[in-house]
């Protein structure tokens, strides 16, 4: 399954077009390497997604074309959620 479609189906990112943009900006890594939207995702892959100052790392557990909202969380396991302080927060302290 394509990376952008997995991000949308698993509900990590709400829209596929947004998932494609995030991938093309280099904000998604698969197993530590930058990944484009068209890269295939496999079970066991680790995805790191950067949302502004927050980085979410998940492991792909299941791949399915159509998933109900309640089942979307079973497609991945959250490994780490890291929030980095912005430079302005550090300077004002």
TrEMBL record:
Q: Where is the RNA-binding S4 domain?
A: 1-62
Instruction: Supply the alphabetized keyword list.
Output: Protein biosynthesis, RNA-binding, rRNA-binding, Stress response, tRNA-binding
Q: Which GO terms describe its biological process?
A: rescue of stalled ribosome
Q: Which InterPro entries match?
A: RqcP, S4_RNA-bd, S4_RNA-bd_sf
Molecular function (GO) terms listed? ribosomal large subunit binding; rRNA binding; tRNA binding
Q: Record's Pfam families?
A: S4
The UniProt similarity line reads: Belongs to the RqcP family.
What role does it play? Key component of the ribosome quality control system (RQC), a ribosome-associated complex that mediates the extraction of incompletely synthesized nascent chains from stalled ribosomes and their subsequent degradation. RqcH recruits Ala-charged tRNA, and with RqcP directs the elongation of stalled nascent chains on 50S ribosomal subunits, leading to non-templated C-terminal alanine extensions (Ala tail). The Ala tail promotes nascent chain degradation. RqcP is associated with the translocation-like movement of the peptidyl-tRNA from the A-site into the P-site.
How this chain assembles, per its entry, is: Associates with stalled 50S ribosomal subunits. Binds to RqcH, 23S rRNA and the P-site tRNA. Does not require RqcH for association with 50S subunits.
Name the chain's protein: RQC P-site tRNA stabilizing factor
Record organism: Thermoflavimicrobium dichotomicum
């Amino acid at each position: 399954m394509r990376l952008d479609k997995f991000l949308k189906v698993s509900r990590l990112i709400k829209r596929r077009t947004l998932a494609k943009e995030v991938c093309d900006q280099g904000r998604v890594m698969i197993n530590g390497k930058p990944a484009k939207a068209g890269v295939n995702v496999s079970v066991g892959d680790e995805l790191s997604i950067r949302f502004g100052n927050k980085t979410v790392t998940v492991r792909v557990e299941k791949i399915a074309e159509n998933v109900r909202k309640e089942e979307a969380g079973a497609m991945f396991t959250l490994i780490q959620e890291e929030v980095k302080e912005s430079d302005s927060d550090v300077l004002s302290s």
